[in-house]
Amino acid sequence: MLVTVILPLVLLGGLGWAVPWAVSRVLPEGAGWLVANGAISAVVLLVLAGGLFALAYGPARAAVWAEAPWYFALLAARSALVWAPVMVLSLANRPRHWTRATW
After folding, report:
1. What is the per-residue DSSP string for 45-74?
2. Which segments cross the bilayer (predicted)?
3. How many Cβ atoms sit within 10 Å of the Cβ of residue 26?
4. b/e map of 66-87 (b: 16 or more CB within 10 Å)?
């Protein structure tokens, strides 16, 4: 249970925090860029979550991909229940570190 449930949850939550933080290091400060950060982070997290689920399927990945390639995208979208709240909290914390723009 630790490896199959808790570890992926912690990994997805950590990615939900780390991806917006990393994207904010590249984008300029400002409210519009904060929204762009959210959109970019959501797309990146969907791709990362889909890849994580594909890796978790191991040898069965090829059979699932051949029958229903959209299945991993569906799992990634469902995993947004885990990473999206963490991502929103991470994005809400970003203006605190702005030095040039004001909220």
Report:
1. HHHHHHHHHHHHTGGGHHHHHHH-TTHHHH
2. 34-58, 70-92
3. 9
4. eeeeeebeebbeebbebbbebb
